[in-house]
């Protein structure tokens, strides 16, 4: 008997790891069944045994990246109790993650998490808990939490996307502008909390 075929010993995690490796080296265009199959040295149909084509691959990779991102944020904010310091550390951790892994960040942010899907709902809940803890929003009503999350996410994501696209052409250090934006967000967050 010969050795088992590599495709037969493949796991879904092997496919995800290979896809992320391709993503890191080649960018978002590398996130496809054909490219990942070449990376693994197998035929594309072998991947379909584990994931539902390009859609399933993109979903699995996005969820993996979301989990890694949340771990990264928790590690960068561990032991910080002051709510302002915690928010600033979390926002800086997000930007650092995006700079370190630009393609991962893009895939993660472009994937719409669905609260009706259990693994995705868990990521949403983890993200929401971390967000509530970092801003100490445990006493805020649901509308205030949603408004705050949308505002913060839009501001940080927008800044990162413009920076990544080299659209910040004015003569001003982006680091300084980011810090000013974060301080302004803190004022806006306090306003939302007081208005509920």
Automatic annotation (TrEMBL):
| GO terms of molecular function | DNA binding
Q: In the UniProt record, does the keyword Acetylation occur? A: no
DNA-binding region(s), chain positions: 32-51
- Which keywords accompany this UniProt record? DNA-binding, Transcription, Transcription regulation
**Domain HTH tetR-type: from-to ranges:** 9-69
Q: Does the keyword Ligase apply?
A: no
Database matches in InterPro entries: Homeodomain-like_sf (IPR009057), HTH_TetR (IPR001647), MT1864/Rv1816-like_C (IPR025996), Tet_transcr_reg_TetR-rel_C_sf (IPR036271)
Give the matching SUPFAM superfamilies.
Answer: Homeodomain-like (SSF46689), Tetracyclin repressor-like, C-terminal domain (SSF48498)
Protein name as it appears in the record: Transcriptional regulator
């Amino acid at each position: 008997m010969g050795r088992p075929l590599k495709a037969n010993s493949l796991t879904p995690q092997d496919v995800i790891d290979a896809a992320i490796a391709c993503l890191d080296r080649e960018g978002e265009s590398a996130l496809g069944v054909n490219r990942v199959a070449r990376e693994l040295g197998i035929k594309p149909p072998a991947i379909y045994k584990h994931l539902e084509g390009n859609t399933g691959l993109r979903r699995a990779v996005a969820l993996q990246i979301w989990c890694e991102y949340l771990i990264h944020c928790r590690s960068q904010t561990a032991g910080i109790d002051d709510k302002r310091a915690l928010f600033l550390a979390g926002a800086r951790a997000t930007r650092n993650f995006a700079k370190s892994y630009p393609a991962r960040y893009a895939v993660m942010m472009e994937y719409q998490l669905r609260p009706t899907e259990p693994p995705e709902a868990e990521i949403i809940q983890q993200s929401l808990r971390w967000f509530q803890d970092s801003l100490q929003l445990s006493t805020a009503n649901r509308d205030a939490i949603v408004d705050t999350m949308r505002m913060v996410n839009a501001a940080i994501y927008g800044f990162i996307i413009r920076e990544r696209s080299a659209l910040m052409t004015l003569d001003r250090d982006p680091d300084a502008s980011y810090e000013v934006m974060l301080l302004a967000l803190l004022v806006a967050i306090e306003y939302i909390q007081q208005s509920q």
